[in-house]
Amino acid sequence: MRIKHHPILNDETRECNATIIVDGKKVPAIEGEPIAAALLAAGIRKFRETPKYHKPRGIFCAIGRCTDCVMIVDGIPNVRTCVTPVRNGMVIKTQKGLGEWGEKS
Amino acid sequence: MKTTEIAIIGAGPAGLSCAVEAAKAGAKVTLLDENLKPGGQLFKQIHKFFGSREHQAGTRGFRIGEQLLKETEELGVEVLLNAAVYGIYENKTLAYVKDGKDHALRAERIVIAAGASENALSFPGCTLPGVMGAGAAQTMINVHRVLPGKKILMVGSGNVGLIVSYQLMQAGAEVKALIEAAPQIGGYGVHAAKIRRAGVPIYVSTTIKEALGTEAVEGVVIHSLDEKWQPIPGTERTLDVDTICLAVGLSPLTELAWMAGCEFTFIPPLGGHVPIHDENMETTLPGIYVAGDITGVEEASSAMEEGRLAGVASAESLGYYDEDTAKRLKDEIWQRLNSLRTGPFGEGRFKAKIKQLQARRQLA
Predict the structure, then answer these.
(1) CA–CA separation, B200 vs B154, rounded Å?
(2) How far is CA A62 from CA A37, A40, B95, B141, B195, in A?
(3) What is the pTM for the complete model shown?
(4) Cα separation of A7 and A16, whole Å?
(5) How far apart are CA B290 and CA B114, in angstroms?
(6) Structural domain boundaries enclosing B105
């Protein structure tokens, strides 16, 4: 959920100006914001599954340290979505295990 | 190879303050940060800082960040962003990755201001999406303006837990409760009172039994602890939350200092293993300095003072200040640092820092 009004930071002035494709579905986003922020705003919380027990994982640290939020971004696995900025048209996939290299778009 | 006089790793409050002081003295300064934007964690601090006026009390954290960025720009500090330093090698040579390429930078002095990262907490369900650091939630709401959830349980009643709870409410979330394993609240009474007035219950001697949910957090079971910190059967309570924020302390990011070969000492109140340093913030390796949370977890105000100290001292060691001028400047900073480390909350840190300095003297 995006924060439209805020008592200290005032009203949001940015608008969604990009679209990313997440597991085949279109998700609105703001160019330059972290991928993870766009996913949270769209209500997506599960970013990957662990290799052995297929357990769900999402954001933990949000500053690029813990690597819990990695996904496959434009065919590259293990991309830290909390510190990788959105570009219009990015193709993002929920990562299963260590992920597989795909076609770079 | 690229060269500089003073290389500073980390553009948070400590690194920026260090850069400002060193550049003011006349040194050539290169500031490196792995993030796309400088400021470290300052820009998510939307609350007013504490302390006295010389510590910029009453000013919101992000405004202090803006001021520091302006000063570094005016002073001509070279700032390398998206530059992750991964090693410190012989002859004070740094290796870093920028824009996917490998680079080296040879410096005459190095200041490591790498900061700290949030601790995790182990309980059944702790890896579910929706369990996150309180600082992570703070980054999401205050920097990226996205709520990580609507119904929050905050774990930990230190200042981070108290302040972030309030900020989550400002962002529009409902904080269902704040729990604390210790028998008393850890942070400032003024912050605790603020969230109590807003109707958030604070349960002390209470911890998490388990987080509920299969794909993400759907609830949480909490229970009370006895005076020996053991769970009391029958005290379980289920709370309807979708997010669990952990404010259970931070650990210094010491990898680079270990790698460089700095000697360490173990001081639990400062966050565990911390590099030994002297009154100039110089480590056991000549010419390698530390500042901020890497030297022991405190707060942004003390990180900024330590940064200034390292900036003055490293510039002095390169001949930019004579001994008297440097001493005067350093004495002023020490006075401010000591006054930050007073009172019921600061005194523990004051004693811990003395221990850290004593560790240096024992080696000398």
Answers:
(1) 10
(2) 9, 12, 25, 11, 24
(3) 0.94
(4) 22
(5) 9
(6) 2-117+250-363
The DSSP letter of residue B153 is E
Nearest CA in chain B to A63: B136
What is residue A105's predicted lDDT score, i.e. its pLDDT?
A: 54
Report the alpha-carbon distance of residue B39 to residue B188 in Å, rounded. 25
Mean pLDDT of chain B: 95
Same domain membership, residue B324 and residue B264: yes
**Percent of chain A's residues with pLDDT above 70:** 97
Residue B362 token pair: 């024992």
Q: Looking at the structure, do residues B287 and B198 belong to the same domain, yes or no?
A: no
Which value does ipTM take for this structure? 0.96
| Cβ contact B132–A61 (<8 Å) | yes
DSSP secondary structure code for residue B31 in this structure: E
- DSSP letter string over B66-120? HHHHHHHHHTT-EEE-SEEEEEEEGGGEEEEEETTEEEEEEEEEEEE---EEE--
Contact (CB<8Å) A1/B146:
yes
Instruction: Average the pLDDT over each of B7-21, B117-131, B334-348 and give the range with the smallest value.
Output: B334-348
pLDDT of residue A104: 61
> CB count, 10 Å around CB of B229?
11
Report chain B residues whose CB lies below 8 A from the CB of A7: 170
Please report the DSSP string for B49-68 in residue order: P-S-GGGTTTSBHHHHHHHH
Q: Is the pLDDT score of B123 beyond 70?
A: yes
Is residue B162 within 8 A of residue B195, CB to CB? The reply is yes
pLDDT at B53 over 70: no
Domain count of the fold of chain B: 2
Give the residue from B47, B85, B139, B145 with the most A CB atoms within 10 Å of its CB, the best one to mutate.
B145
Which residues from A are below 8 Å from B128, CB to CB?
56, 58
pLDDT of A83 strictly over 70: yes
Q: Over 90: is that where the pLDDT of A23 sits?
A: yes
- Dist. CA B13–CA B299, nearest whole Å: 10
- Domain with residue B193: its CATH number is 3.50.50.60
Short-list B221, B223, B177, CA closest to B201: B177
- Domains (range + CATH), chain A: 18-96 (3.10.20.440)
CB atoms within 10 A of CB A24: 7
